[in-house]
Amino acid sequence: MTPRFDDSSFTVAIVGCGGFIGSHLLDAVLERTRWRVFGVDLDFYRLQHRLNHERCEFLCADLADPAVVERIAQFPLVVNLAAICTPSRYMGEACEVIRSNYDHPAALAEACAKSGAWLVHFSTSEIYGKTAADSGELVEDSTPAVFGPVTASRWSYATAKLLAERFIAGLPGLRWTVVRPFNFVGPYMDFMPGVDGEGIPRVLANFSTALLRGEPLKLVNGGKAKRCFTSVHDAIDFLFALFDAGLGCALSFGVGDSPDAGCKTAAGAGHSGRDAVGVSKVGAAPNASELKVGSAPGASELKVGAAPDAGVFSQAFNVGNAENEVSIAELAQKMRAIFAKVRGVDVSTLPEPQSVSGEEYYGAGYDDSMRRMPSIAKAERLLGFRARIPLDTALEESLSWFVMHYSV
After folding, report:
1. DSSP 8-state code for residue 370
2. Contact partners, residue 137, CB within 8 Å, separation at least 6
3. Are 77 and 58 a contacting pair, CB within 8 Å?
4. Rounded Cα gap, residues 347 and 381, in angstroms
5. How far is Cα 158 from Cα 164, in angstroms, rounded to an integer?
6. How confident is the model over 267-287, as pLDDT tens digits?
7. Integer Cα distance of 366 and 382 in angstroms
8. Going from the N-terminus, what domains does the chain have, and what CATH number goes with each?
9. Residue 292 pLDDT exceeds 80
């Protein structure tokens, strides 16, 4: 445990702590550090085992409330994971998707700019747009983004996320880092329709649900699109590498000179650059007016100095595993084989996948990108980070958890 993680007076605010990634991050903070956690979400279904933890304080609220936003920004490190990120909602609820992924993050970014908090904002790999099947690596600072027509409401999520990135990058004095996830998978991902959520979840939970119910796996437009799936455990390791580098060069728990000074990372020189699914209600969760910040060092105690332009600040990072690329059709066959192994059945007894059109499956306004391959050079250069968990391991862990959690 490094000295940075050993400071018991430090508090991190995790917005969206009850979601898939947020719940894993909260667990890791409690297990790897002595920090306190201020967790904000509308649902704590995945955190039942943490609700009474002595180092946690939870607020049942969202970023639509300005008072909540101001409270969150008083902590020195703010990780914003809150989002509507269910593909089926992009078509039917485009306006709400845009509010969730642009309006609310923009308000939080403004509050963090005023308070001096370091904002780690989760964006998406979808900001690269409608990539073709022969697209190469997607590079954070040079790959152009091209989207479908305005009638294709499937792009409501991606364009809102991209605009949020632009807004964050343009705010004077904001200490920020953007994370672009490439298909994170693992336990606690998404939901099972009709059990603890409605609609169509992302592909891994979608396929897992079909396998448990003995239904054919649906391949949208034949499953030709390719994705790079990344274990959530690798994602958490990336965040800790980021925290270590960022806190070491700027926050220093109150010794905050300009982040330009001494802000080169060990791995290389810096350069410039929910969906609520649960069923639980946490009645005792404090509202914004009851929030007690206590003695945790607020962002107002940090000497922010000039706008950062070195190290991990003012940077967008791809977080993905380029070695785990697979077509959705290939993913379906892998998951059938893993399910047969987990359940101890012959794979030949499982229904064969079926192809469906995107509009038939998701509705009018559907569109997609055919390949998303991340460049991981920046994370390697600035943080010494590289995802390590192979695809089959990540899939087996994810599907095994899903089977254990939802089997009757």
Report:
1. S
2. 143, 322, 373, 374, 375
3. no
4. 43
5. 10
6. 433 333 333 222 233 333 333
7. 37
8. 3-189+231-322+374-389 (3.40.50.720)
9. no
For residues 278 and 101, the model is more confident at: 101
CA distances to 10, 179, 193 from 313, rounded to whole Å, are 20, 11, 39
CB atoms within 10 A of CB 110: 16
Distance CA 281, CA 81 (A): 20
**What single string gives the DSSP state of each residue in 230-284?**
EEHHHHHHHHHHHHHHHIIIIIGGG----TTTT--BTTB--------------TT
Residue 226: partners with Cβ closer than 8 Å, 6 or more residues away: 133, 325, 326, 327, 328, 370, 371, 372, 373
pLDDT the model gives residue 197: 65
pTM for this prediction: 0.85
- Nearest-5° angle of CA 379, CA 22, CA 318? 20
What residue type is 28 in one-letter code? A
Helix-strand-coil percent breakdown of the chain, rounded to 5?
40, 15, 40
Residue 364: pLDDT band by 50, 70, 90 thresholds? confident
The torsion angles phi and psi of 310, rounded to 5 degrees, stand at -140, 165
Residue 261 predicted with pLDDT over 60: no
Paired sense of beta strands 226-228 and 325-327, if any? antiparallel
| Percent of the chain's residues with pLDDT above 90 | 70
Cα separation, 32 vs 239, in Å, equals 12
Kindly give the residue spans of alpha helices, DSSP state H, lying in 263-357. Answer: 328-343
Query: Residue 199 — very low, low, confident or very high, per pLDDT cuts 50/70/90?
Result: low
Per DSSP bridges, beta strands 11-15 and 36-41 are parallel
Local confidence band at 2 (pLDDT 50, 70, 90 cut-offs): low
Pairwise CA distance, residues 398 & 231, whole Å: 9
Half-sphere exposure of 358 (CA within 13 A, CB side): 16
Q: How far is CA 297 from CA 97, 134, 302, in A?
A: 33, 49, 8
High-pLDDT (> 70) share of the chain, %: 81
- Measured CA to CA in angstroms, residue 391 lies from 166, 177, 234, 235, 280 at distances of 32, 27, 12, 14, 32
